[in-house]
Specification:
601 residues, alpha/beta, six-stranded parallel β-sheet
Length: 601
């Protein structure tokens, strides 16, 4: 082996570790000592040897990295990320979103067709998004197309242009340019795509035909559809989007599956465990359907969410601890009868203003105050005019914003005024450590946050779960989240995946889901040399300054994690190293590419 390698004059990059998760020829994953040789010219893996070879085995011009005892993993593939560019770059963008991904070992992200403007529902919209991505991506980025009423004629051109799949909503998406689809629209999309190598995905929430809850739409409804409780209480919000929303939608999708028996159907961000028997039964009957769940459904529980902490709002909602435990049981069974095959972030950020955070959570970077933006969230339209004022003496529990009907629901007019001075923040009530305030000292961290200040107290509906925008920021945090909670569950004798399982669900299976497994999601000869270097022992606390997405708002702030990504490599080149200069982005400029190859599998 040494003689053969030394005769090879091509410069090499070598990564070795006593703890490497490789992919065998039959696609089985194996934790083993290994040495991986990479071509820096092609960015491909040249060889995988199941032992740690010394640096002397390679030519003198080889870049040799023995990473032992850290884990050498294939780069993660996050198949559900909202990058929001162009159009809503106040919320997120290619540069910041992919930096956050790279910092967490995610070397490929797949961008959702919304909330960018224009959305990726036409070929022209896709081309505009590609132009916006140029020169900005720190990791490789693939793209989904969208299914909306009236765009069936755009679907096959988008397949030819290289989108990895399609997504539609069975309930209001929250943005006007991406309306929900009807059963007729779903049927038309299925028949249009039935012979294409693609995945048709659904936000599976749907209003049951008879219900006492219509989610956010309750704000303009008459009794008995009004919410039964305090709008600032998470339990009220949770009850407004019951499991029936998910089960009814999934039953509708399954009922139409016969129209396209070969087409891969997929349920995004599954939350309610009541849907699992429906999906399992459909799979037993031969329906080609899978589901994903998200890090926040596996790591956060309704039982622990404080009233007014709108950082936790998302749709479908975070449910009970009992529900979470059942999700963990299902993912442990992913290799067998389980229907949840992948775990993703559903990174869906917005500006801090749109989260309507209560005062003790209202911190933003000095340069992150954004222009006011019109938006809606599941039937609620919101504007933030700067020329109105607010009586600070108003109690949030006793007053509601002015409601003005619009075509899509409600306009919520919120006031703003001059920012208040910097103030000391109380401890984050969700944290597991005492040093977790929003303005925590970052002196001992490699990437301290910019100076922060409180947003003004301007609104009577701060902490209102029904008025706040729904979405959770977490791209790049997935591996520490899963590893931390799985370690704790295993210590208590509960079902939990190991690192091999996490690689299967966050890299291998996600790459397969989007038709990229021929090059992504595996440490295997011929694949892209995408790697995640993971220290499974390091304990650390997420602080605002270590959030690399654009808006530093996340329910994960102040949480203590076990396990941390130390390095990320994209196609044979290191792009991130924790603690290095430049915020850890050692290359100095973006390395990622837009993935536009036509899907073939």
């Amino acid at each position: 082996m040494a003689t053969t390698l030394q005769q090879n004059e091509q410069p090499l990059v070598v990564l070795a570790s006593t703890n490497t998760i490789i992919t065998l020829p039959d696609d089985t994953l194996l934790l083993t000592p290994a040495t991986v040789t990479v071509s820096p010219v092609t960015g491909k893996i040249l060889s995988v040897v199941r032992e740690v070879l010394p640096g002397s085995s390679f030519p003198p011009n080889t870049t040799y990295n023995d990473l032992s005892p850290k884990f050498l993993l294939p780069g993660l593939v996050d198949a559900h990320v909202h990058l929001n560019e162009p159009g809503r770059t106040e919320w997120e963008g290619f540069n910041t979103g992919t930096k956050a991904a790279a910092s967490g070992g995610v070397t490929t992200v797949i961008d959702m067709p919304l909330n960018a403007i224009p959305p990726t529902t036409t070929l022209a919209g896709f081309q505009e998004k590609l132009r916006a991505s140029q020169g900005q991506c720190w990791v490789d980025v693939g793209f989904y197309g969208g299914v909306i009423p009236g765009n069936a004629g755009e679907l096959l051109p988008l397949v030819e242009a290289g989108v990895r799949g399609f997504k539609g909503f069975l309930i209001d998406s929250g943005v006007d340019e991406f309306p929900a689809v009807s059963s007729k629209d779903i049927a038309l999309a299925m028949t249009t795509l039935k012979d294409s190598p693609t995945t048709l995905m659904f936000h599976a929430e749907m209003l049951p035909p008879i219900t006492e809850s219509v989610g956010d739409y309750v704000q303009i409804s008459d009794p008995p559809l009004a919410p039964k409780g305090d709008l600032f209480s998470y339990s009220t919000f949770l009850e407004s989007r019951p499991p029936a929303f998910e089960t009814y939608a999934i039953e509708e999708i399954v009922s139409l599956a016969e129209l396209a028996p070969k087409l891969h159907l997929h349920i995004v961000h599954l939350s309610a465990v009541e849907a699992i028997p429906i999906l399992r039964n459909a799979r037993k009957e031969g329906v080609n359907i899978t589901a994903e769940t998200c890090f926040h459904y596996l790591g956060l529980a309704a039982d622990d969410i404080e009233d007014g902490d709108t950082r936790h709002k998302c749709c479908p909602p975070i449910r009970s601890q009992t529900n979470q435990d059942r999700l963990w049981e299902e993912i442990v069974e992913a290799q067998g009868e389980g229907c949840i095959k992948t775990i993703v972030s559903d990174h869906s950020p917005c500006t801090p203003e749109l989260k309507l955070l209560p005062p003790h959570l209202q911190t933003v970077d000095d340069d992150s105050l954004r222009p006011n933006m019109h938006h809606s969230d599941s039937g609620v339209d919101m504007t933030l005019p700067s020329d109105q004022t607010h009586d600070k003496s108003c109690s949030h529990a006793s007053s509601r914003p002015e409601l003005k009907p619009t075509d899509s629901g409600v306009v919520m007019t919120l006031a703003s005024e001059t920012p208040s001075p910097i103030e000391e923040q109380p401890t984050n009530p969700l944290s597991t450590t005492t040093a977790t305030t929003c303005c925590a000292d970052t002196t001992h961290h490699p990437n301290p946050a910019p100076q922060q200040r409180l947003l003004p107290i301007t609104n009577t509906n701060q902490g209102d779960f029904f008025a706040a925008w729904g979405g959770i920021s977490s791209v790049g945090l997935g591996l520490p989240i899963l590893h931390t909670i799985a370690t704790d569950r295993a210590a208590h004798g509960l079902p939990a995946p190991d690192l091999v399982d996490m690689v299967r669900m966050c890299s291998q299976a996600t790459a397969q889901q989007v038709g990229l497994y021929h090059r992504k999601g595996a440490i295997k000869v011929g694949h892209d040399a995408d790697f995640c270097v993971f220290d499974s022992e390091e304990r650390w606390v997420l602080r605002s300054g270590e959030m690399r997405w654009k808006n530093k708002v996340s329910p994960w702030e102040g949480r203590q994690f076990v396990g941390r990504v130390r390095e990320s490599w994209v196609r044979g080149e290191k792009v991130f190293q924790l603690g290095a200069v430049g915020g850890g982005f050692v290359r100095g400029k973006p390395r990622g590419e837009a993935i536009v190859e036509r899907r073939t599998a």
